[in-house]
Design a protein that fits this description.
Elements (H helix, E strand, L loop, with lengths): L2 H24 L8 H13 L4 H8 L3 H13 L3 E5 L7 E5 L1 H25 L2 H18 L4
Helix pairs in contact: 2-4, 3-4
Amino acid sequence: MTAALQAETAHELRTSVMRLARRLRHERRAHGLGLTKVTFLGHLDRSGPATTSELAAVEGIAQQSAARAVADLVDAGLVIREPDPRDGRQVLLRVSQAGRELLESDRARRDAWLATAMAERLTDVERDLLALAGRLLDRLAAEPE
């Protein structure tokens, strides 16, 4: 594959992934949380307890902005603050049961939309190719070792 064709393929892939991401965001139920707050919840759910500083780094935002988002999540009962057992000066954040239920509902809704769209719009062979493409996208997204 020539460099020009690689660049064109990369451009098409990036725009397709972005369109799909936008469509999946559109399928999100109206829970009133912005993308940053949902990202924080998802990170805490996948990776376990974290500090506000760690969440700010994940999202690439200022710690003050992260602190406001975290305060809103705590006030909504979606995140719980608890002392860090290794460092009593630190506060760890973890997803509450209500936060986990919101995430599960949100993920299930988007997964259902995607499964239906795949069933209605793609052939069996295309669905198999998409399954392979998903694994390839994971490899591309992984941090280099």
